[in-house]
Design brief:
Elements (H helix, E strand, L loop, with lengths): L1 E2 L6 E2 L14 E5 L3 H13 L3 E5 L2 H11 L3 E5 L7 H10 L7 E6 L5 H8 L3 E4 L4 H12 L1
Parallel strand pairs: 3-4, 3-5, 5-6, 6-7
Antiparallel strand pairs: 1-2, 2-4
Amino acid sequence: MRRGRPGNRDVSPSAPKTETNVHPLRILVIEDSPDVGDQLAILLRHRGNEVRLERTGEAGVTAVGEFKPEAVLLDIGLPDLDGHDVATRIRSVAGFEHVTIIGLSGYDATEKERAADSGFDEFLTKPVLPSAIEAALAKRSG
């Protein structure tokens, strides 16, 4: 596993494919909470995906071009950029207009309508169950 300085990107080779994830994906997680981000990365790697973790919106937007994800799990409440702005910027990167973007928020469900307008494909309210993440990703890989 390759790790940058604390709080920076985390890129690792994918874990062995498991029965629960027939189609492993390249997934970018953009989450500022160390607990949430680290747990999401562990879960997704355990399911056989290749995961990159970023802690800020700016770093996440940059990572899209470098990592070329098939799916993005994106926190709405980031410290530098609003998750809606990040989603809009990801959609504007050439070749990533159709990447699956799943919004994650601890805010109430009123964010859901705004998330759809910002280009999110799915919106999940924290705390998020692993089964909900798997179901959202299955729509992408199925």
